[in-house]
């Protein structure tokens, strides 16, 4: 084989190698671009997504003490085949562990939005009272009686009607639950033990509604 033929073959090999590398590079580049745009579209869709249940829009976050509490899960409370309220749980860090949530001394919140005209202030406070008894036991109720009386006072301060929304948010700095009704602060209920008992209405080993508990923990999608 002559020198010219060798050079031609070498040149052809180099060109083929370059073309192959270029094709591989283009494939990788196209793949990365596709992944990028799919991720961008997915993120945008998630950011714009609104959660709705029984006609109630559930906020994705709650602003509290210069912090955004994240929606952990949500569901509805049903009694006698009637949806009485939509509930959502907000945490600083998402979790499926009910015990850790109850024991955690971090900011967290419960949101209740009334969905039935049959729910009154008195019925709501009575229902929460029963839920707390179920959660911690009748024998432990005297330890939080003062806080429980305060909760009932705040809930019965004015009439509760359909679509009223309550945000009951535990502050780790104040060691108290702040009670908001339709975004207006009604009062504060002190005590970390009360916080555990209150959140335990829905998250304890003996919750008022096992299916709602799973929904709040994000186990029901």
From TrEMBL:
InterPro entries: Chalcone_isomerase, Chalcone_isomerase_3-sand, Chalcone_isomerase_sf. Residues 52-218 form the Chalcone isomerase domain. It comes from the Bacteria. One of its GO terms (molecular function) is intramolecular lyase activity. It holds the Pfam family Chalcone_3. This is Chalcone isomerase domain-containing protein.
């Amino acid at each position: 084989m002559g020198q010219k033929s060798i050079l031609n073959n070498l040149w052809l090999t180099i060109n083929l190698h370059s073309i192959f590398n270029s094709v591989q590079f283009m494939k990788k580049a196209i793949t990365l671009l596709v992944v990028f745009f799919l991720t961008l579209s997915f993120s945008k869709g998630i950011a714009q997504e609104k959660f709705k249940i029984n006609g109630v829009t559930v906020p994705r976050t709650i602003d509290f003490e210069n912090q955004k509490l994240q929606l952990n899960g949500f569901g509805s409370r049903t009694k006698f085949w009637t949806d009485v309220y939509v509930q959502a749980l907000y945490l600083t860090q998402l979790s499926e562990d009910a015990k850790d949530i109850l024991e955690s001394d971090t900011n967290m919140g419960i949101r209740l939005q009334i969905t039935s005209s049959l729910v009154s202030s008195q019925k709501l406070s009575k229902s929460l009272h029963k839920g707390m008894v179920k959660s911690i036991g009748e024998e432990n109720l005297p330890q939080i009686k003062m806080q429980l009386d305060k909760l009932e006072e705040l809930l019965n301060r004015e009439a509760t009607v359909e679509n009223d929304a309550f945000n009951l948010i535990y502050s780790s700095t104040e060691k108290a639950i702040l009670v908001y009704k339709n975004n207006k602060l009604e009062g504060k209920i002190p005590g970390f033990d009360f916080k555990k008992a209150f959140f335990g209405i829905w998250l304890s080993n003996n919750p008022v509604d096992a299916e709602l508990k799973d929904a709040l923990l994000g186990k029901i999608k």
